[in-house]
Write a structure and sequence with these properties.
This protein has about 130 residues and is mostly beta strands. It contains no helices and 11 strands. Strand 7 and strand 8 form a beta hairpin. The radius of gyration is 14 Å and the shape is globular.
Length: about 130
Amino acid sequence: QVQLQESGGGLVQAGGSLRLSCAASGRTFSSYAMGWFRQAPGKEREFVAAISWRGVNTYYADSVKGRFTISRDDAKNTVYLQMNSLKPEDTAVYYCAGRNSPYDYSRYLRTSDYVYWGQGTQATVSS
């Protein structure tokens, strides 16, 4: 069982940056594939970025490619989402998600691919 807790959201002007963190409990975090998703009001939860076991592979939604970077620090049981050049359309609640996938470099881009979810952190980008 893994518990996930996001932090780092806030209010920022367009063009600014935020760094989201997701801290995980448990001793097997390094074996987990992790993802970030977001959900804007009235919209479905959508994929943002994912990182595989040991951080070998990363994947991004086209809408954030080149602006967002996902990374992980297994020693700290934490996954990050660095968000640069933010736009008002990036405004959403951001969720981190995880699944136990050791020795697995597959891409997991769907909400149904993940077992564990955090409570979310709000990121608001003003124009």
